[in-house]
Structures are given as C-alpha cells and as structure tokens.
Write a structure and sequence with these properties.
The chain has two domains: 98 residues, Nucleotidyltransferase, domain 5, CATH 3.30.420; 158 residues, ATPase, nucleotide binding domain (Nucleotidyltransferase, domain 5, 2-Layer Sandwich), CATH 3.30.420.40. It is 38% helix and 20% strand. It has nine helices and twelve strands. A five-stranded mixed β-sheet has the order 3-2-1-4-7. Strands 10-9-8-11-12 form a five-stranded mixed β-sheet, with helices on both faces. This is ROK family protein. Belongs to the ROK (NagC/XylR) family. InterPro entries: ATPase_NBD (IPR043129), ROK (IPR000600).
C-alpha cells in the first residue's frame, strides 16, 4: 500500500506481488495535521472497499517537506500547513489506521517508483515541479545523505548575477529550471506555464523559444552535475512539468547534446541517451511509497 500526500490531493494505491496496481483512490487533501490524517484515512478506507479485503501490510507514505525517516516525522511541508516543530506523522497515521507506517520524502518515494518502472538499480530521478530536486537510487539503495540533503540539486548556484533563490543563495538552478521559474518567465493565466511556453515555442515565437531553451539548458545542467557525480544507468524526469512528456525529453536531450558538443569526454557519456520521462498516467510517487513497505 502506498500514499502520495500532496498539497491538493492524496493518492493511494494497492500493489499486487508483481507491482501491478490492484486499486487506486484519489481524494482532496485537507491541510494541517488533522486534515492530513483525515485525508489519508478516507483514502485508506476507500482502498479497503475497492480491494474487498483487509489491508494489514505496511503502509508507505510519501510527503513533501523535510522528513526524518527514523523518527517518522515531517516539518517544512508549508503547502500542507505543516511548519515549525516536527510532526510525528508516522505515529499519527499508524494510530488512526491500525497498520505500520513507513514515512518518506515524496521525491525519494517517487525515485523508488521510477526505479521500479525502469527495472534499474542505479537511477537519478529529477523532479521538476514548483522547485527542482533529485532522488538517487545507487546500487539498489535509496541515498538520502547524512543530513537528508542528497539530491538538492536545485540549490546549486550557477549564475552569480541571477535572482535570489528562496534558499537565500543567488542564481540557483531552481531559479532557472523549475515550474516556478517557468511561471515567472512565461505567465500564462489558467494554462500551466510549461504547456503554454512549449506551445508558443512550437509556433516559432522567438521569445518563447529563448525561454524554453534557457529552461531546458538549466535542466540539462542539473542532469550533467548529477550524472558526473554518480554516473547513473538511467535519468528520469518527473514532477508536474514532466506532464509535457516527449516534448520535454526532446528539448532537454537537445540541450544535453549542445552542452556536450565541444567535449568529447561529455559526449562519450551519452547523457541524452539515458534520459526518460515518467509516463503521465503512472503514479510514480504512490508506487514508490508502496515499495517502502518492503
């Protein structure tokens, strides 16, 4: 069983022994500690009804924010109304649902789901959402880092003259290659900025093409840094912007090729050839959360 708890929805699913999805339920997420637990309970109860059987295994939960896996606690999940002190979410959920719970950061959970989808033991998962962050599976194990900061690629500064990032540094990759960066570069009203920008670029709009290429180059730079650090077998793009699908992969692959054009060494690594995008209908974070129980 896995839950992907997000700011707007909680998605839950049950997997069979082979990783196939037996049941899937989506409910709106209510903010705050009580709201999160209540939302999770609604999804869990609906999954029991959908499967027609008791659910007594370990429930894996992915949630945004800073997660202390050993304590089963989360903080700085601001969009969920969780800030300040650590929230012991694992124990709150276990007490409410009556099953053991494994808690993990949502990007790390999605990384496990991406590794299961690609059937690989070495993978970088780059989540391009409001921010920019990566998850790492190395030799079949999730790498969190000594302080939980592994994969925080969005806060690598690349432009000393760039805008100030929310982390306090200037010119971070996140200010160039994220959903929020796209929204700032290409305001689009009710249309998702990534879709609007890529659509305008396809029409030949030179301003849109320049904005798309700058964004794609930023994503490619994040991939290059991560790949030179850990040399993964597979590189997977996910997060809200990845709903673009193949156009995103092609744009980032082209940026990778251009960055490698003057470097035989970089070209030999074929980073563009390792690039994948999570299918839009694959609930990667909820699947990865379910694997936490193993």
């Amino acid at each position: 069983m896995g839950l992907d708890i997000g700011a707007t929805k909680t998605l839950g699913l049950v997997l069979d022994a082979d990783g196939g999805i037996l049941a899937e339920v989506r409910e709106p997420t209510k903010p705050g500690a009580d709201g999160i637990v209540a939302s999770a309970a609604r999804v869990y109860d609906a999954l029991r009804v959908a499967t027609g059987q008791p659910l007594d295994g370990v429930l894996g939960v992915g949630i945004p924010g800073l997660v202390d896996v050993e304590r089963g606690a989360v903080k700085h999940a601001v969009n969920l109304g969780v800030d300040g002190d650590w929230l012991p979410l694992r124990d709150l959920l276990a007490g409410r649902l009556g099953v053991p719970v494994a808690l993990e950061n949502d990007v790390n959970a999605a990384t496990l789901g991406a590794a299961a989808l690609d059937h690989v033991s070495d993978l970088v998962y780059l989540s391009i959402g409001t921010g920019l962050a990566a998850g790492l599976v190395l030799d079949g194990r999730l790498r969190r880092g000594a302080h939980g900061a592994a994969g925080e690629i969005g806060h690598v500064p690349v432009d000393p003259q760039g805008v100030v990032c929310q982390c306090g540094q200037r010119g971070c990759l996140e200010t160039i290659a994220s959903g929020s960066a796209l929204a700032a570069a290409w305001p689009a009203g009710d249309v998702p900025p990534a879709q609007a920008l890529f659509a305008a670029a396809r029409t030949g709009d030179p301003t849109a093409i320049a904005a798309r290429d700058r964004f794609s180059a930023g994503v490619a730079s994040a991939i290059r840094v991560l790949s030179l650090a850990v040399d993964p077998e597979s590189i997977v793009l996910g997060g809200g912007v990845a709903q673009l699908g193949e156009p995103l992969r092609l744009a980032v692959a082209q940026a990778l090729l251009e960055q490698a054009a003057s470097s035989p060494f970089l070209a030999s690594l074929d980073l563009a050839g390792r690039l994948r995008v999570v299918p839009s209908d694959y609930p990667v974070a909820a699947v990865g959360a379910a694997f936490l129980g193993r």
